[in-house]
Amino acid sequence: MLSNMRDHLAALHDILRNMAAGNLDEAAEIAESRLGVSSLERHGASHMANLMPEGMQSVGTGMHKAASHFALKAQEGEVLPAYRALSEVTAACVACHAAYRIR
Fold this sequence. Notes:
Elements (H helix, E strand, L loop, with lengths): L1 H19 L3 H11 L10 H5 L4 H22 L3 H21 L4
């Protein structure tokens, strides 16, 4: 689980780096492949879900959906709407890390 979260953080960094360089299509690809709904199998989400409280599962699902939404917005090529959508992703991260700890 911690390895997945570290990769999520690295993906956010790669997304921001690409957005700053004006590479919204690359940012969208990273978001969908590493954070979005299509990344769930890669991260073993079905196995991980059994280890998480229901609220954590819900916030996590929201983050993955928000990442897919961001990818669509980034593909549209407009920076500000893409950043707004990305803030939905980071809001889920903040909410989860504020409420849950792995011991």
